[in-house]
Structure prediction request, 310 residues.
Amino acid sequence: MNKKVTEQQLQEWIEHVKPFTRLGKVPDYIPALAKQDPEHIAVSVFHLDGECVRAGYVDHLFTLQSISKVIALALALMDQGEDYVFSKVGMEPTGDPFHSIAKLETSNPSKPLNPMINAGALAVTNMIEGESPTDKVGKLLSFVHELAGDNTIGIDTEVASSEFETAHLNRALCYYMKQNGIIEGSVEELLDVYTKQCSIAVNIQQLARIGAVFANEGRDLQSGRQIIPKHLARICKTFMVTCGMYDASGSFAIRVGIPAKSGVSGAIMGCVKDVGGIAVVGPSLDEKGNSVVGMQLLEMLSSRLELSIF
Ligand SMILES: NC(=O)CC[C@H](N)C(=O)O
Prediction:
């Protein structure tokens, strides 16, 4: 079947879901994110043949937030290898909110259950090699440039500083992990890298193209170059299925059924083998931290194009 939609269809779907923004709310635990407009909705499908279909606020920039966890994981796996990464971080879903500290105390050995929750993501970011925080952020950014095929992508410094100043819970997670030998070095420097990683700012097309590289088994869409080794891209996508939508990953697998990762900016990046990357954004979030309209748009796309992998 033809797995393509038109821009007009996407625009109609945006109009259809817009009223549902009222069912959620824009997050305020990172003060700069509270300023987002819930109606800044956009959607894009980046096909493996290079065609990109998009609609809504297509030029609007938003931050990656937790979507960056997949990217940092790919980089850490490439830098350190699977054995090292999984000696520090587990592979199991938690069923808890993304910033929960509870399982760190009750799991034995005391390591974060997976790289998609904040504790696991902080441990993964701690593994990225570099002489200084600036070096590590530079490395992450260059990797994003490669994935998106666009080296104009930068960091939203207002969002980064806002999170850095208020990331008390993430600091607590780091100190707990430092006590237990999961991370080492300066917590402040790690928070500096992590908050900048989360604040990498993209538009909807750039995000869909990153998703398309994962869909394309780690290969660049134009040159065919293997940016991420295939088996590591597969590990990332598997985590997206089991843990990508926080503690709503199970219901999302049933409703939508594609590897996807969401962030508190209201963005979600999905990838579908043989089809491409999908990105949606809508800053109004449900109680689990997932975009209300983003999930609806993905559900519509998945059912119309029969995208579920199950
Ligand atoms: N779920 C998210 O997107 C969380 C990312 C955010 N930067 C945090 O650590 O709280």
Remarks:
- The longest strand covers residues 42-47.
- The mean pLDDT is 95.
- Residues 133-148 form the longest helix (16 residues).
- Residues 65-66, 98-99, 118, 163, 170, 198, 263-264, 289 surround glutamine (CB under 6 Å).
